[in-house]
Amino acid sequence: MGFRTIAVVMFDEIPLFEASVPIAVFGERRAGAPEFDVRAVSAEGGPVRTDAGIALSAPYGLDAVDEADLVIVPTWRHPLDRPPADDALKALREAHHRGATVVGLCLGTFVLAAAGLLDGRPAATHWRYAPLLASRYPTINVEPDVLYVDEGDVLTSAGSAGGIDLCLHLVRRTYGHRVANDIARSMVVPPHRAGGQAQYIDHPVPLPETGDPLGETLEWALRNLDRELTVDTLSSHAMMSRRTFDRRFRQATGTTPTQWLLHQRVLHAQRLLETTADPVELVARRSGFASAVALRPHFRRQLGVSPTTYRQSFGPT
């Protein structure tokens, strides 16, 4: 289901950059993109004063949360502070209960945790405060090494840039790669440092650097996904032993070469389904799968739908 009305719930003494992230992604009118109704909400009434002393005039109160399809808490003043007031937490719980998607960016995860929306779920927050989140809310499965966690109706992200990744991911999963890429291009940020759908947790992929054999190998692999690529092939290209390559790869990406390759193949198939009229069988082979039958379960596992259904929603007209 799409979303158009977005409530950005801000608290006093929050960092300015994090507060601006969802407004930067959803607030600007862009050709070809949906027109989102972004409502800046003062959770505590009156102007919102940032940690730099800048006063922001938020024209909406907590009642705007009642009408939103998407509710975003961009951050929190400090995780050691006492939780937000009960009326703010109640508004978040009621929004979730009626079916709105609720998001916590960076330290906003602590607000969702205080509202009880993360009990029994995996969640992400800034790596520096991940141990504190785990100790304060032991029922939450804290993922300290990921950019964001998508649980479908509740999503959380890591630090400042992770909030951008998560907002672009929300656009991508709802409106497709093309719209998300257009927004990323206008913001001059990477369109897809991370991705996936409900229940999928992704890791950042390092950008290739001159003289960095691992980064150059990842770039080469992305250009050759239609080939038969194995971990031995990649380690040989990087001129490393298999053991050294595995260790370096996990340190850089937080995942294994096999998992990374599989995810990149599905992403490539996703783009081909959006931008070409190639039969699904050909899309599968161009993405490195032996057949459409081999592609289908991996595609469904990551995106929740079959390749054919995805094309019907996001493919070229």
UniProtKB/TrEMBL annotation:
Family matches, as PROSITE patterns: HTH_ARAC_FAMILY_2
Protein name as annotated: Transcriptional regulator GlxA family with amidase domain
Keyword vocabulary terms for this entry: Transcription, Transcription regulation
Pfam families reported for this sequence: DJ-1_PfpI, HTH_18
Key word Transcription present: yes
Xref: CDD domains: GATase1_AraC_1
The keyword Transcription belongs to this UniProt entry's keyword annotation: yes
InterPro entries associated with the record: Class_I_gatase-like, DJ-1/PfpI, Homeodomain-like_sf, HTH_AraC, INH-QAR
Domain HTH araC/xylS-type: 215-313
PANTHER family named among the record's database cross-references: ARAC-FAMILY TRANSCRIPTIONAL REGULATOR (PTHR43130), HTH-TYPE TRANSCRIPTIONAL REGULATOR RV1931C (PTHR43130:SF3)
UniProt GO molecular function: DNA-binding transcription factor activity; sequence-specific DNA binding
Organism phylogeny: Bacteria, Bacillati, Actinomycetota, Actinomycetes, Streptosporangiales
